[in-house]
Amino acid sequence: MTRVFSGIKPTGPVQLGNLLGALRHWVADQDEADGVFCIVDLHALTVPQDPVELRERTLELARLLLAIGIDPERSILFVQSHLSEHAELSWILECTASFGELRRMTQFKDKSDGAEFVSAGLFTYPALMAADILLYDTDRVPVGDDQRQHLELARDLAIRFNGRYGDTFVVPEAAIPKIGARVMDLQHPTRKMSKSEDSPQGTILVLDDLDAVAKKIKRAVTDTDTEVRFDPEHKPGVSNLLSILSACTGEDPAVVADRFTRYGDLKAACAEAVVETLRPIQQRYRELAADPTGTKDILAAGAERARAIARPVLDRARTNLGLLAP
Ligand code: TRP
Fold it and tell me: 58, 10 in Cβ contact below 8 A?
């Protein structure tokens, strides 16, 4: 079976954009691939985190992934820091990557530009990400477009390592979902809905109160004329609502557009679709949250299964590199 690996950082509340853009692809991937899904808490450390909050967010994210349908029977769900293998292979890959290569990463440039404190980890972040991927003999990595360059690097590092030391790593492919489910901020529809809390009225959190969700959608910014048409460039507000609605119902946004003549009806339909998408997720989330050990047990079992794959791959790399067996 094809192995799919992906990761998500426990750095903020999960919003509708994460769900419709990335996470529901993870859920769907489980039907046709062997899924390994990782909460990448070590990646969160590139900027200082509040310890209590980090721990809480990690557990919250695990519950949420289970609530949206990551099935721990079929897939592996685990926390990155529960396996020392990730940090260990990361060092090896830092020594495989060149300084110049890491310096060219646009995400590093964007995030370090003007920052008061830039951790060395922010710079080496892509090597850790490559370690995550390569440890699982991954075939396919579903990521957003913003991670394409990091994934290219992971491929380059695998190829370089294999060339120097002999066949060690599987070279992964990117699987970037087609645009369409790019969810934009409801108040500023030309920018992506983001995890950060600087636009609470424009952002729908997966665990938001459902009445508040409906209100935010009904107050979304639309466009000056009155025609309902899918045209992200000229009608970003209306197109965003169409994208969201169609992502919830699994239809094409241009087809959905034909059903509406008034903004009000579109907003009402969109609000209902989102609320009905979130309702069962929130219900399962509450059940998981009411069970103090259930999610932790699932993560422990996931770490165990992850290690059974990652350990032999790391050992292969160690041996091929010439590190003396302990
Ligand atoms: N860097 C990814 C992001 O910010 C998260 C991530 C870490 C990841 N390791 C990964 C994604 C491995 C895919 C595969 O979204």
Answer: yes
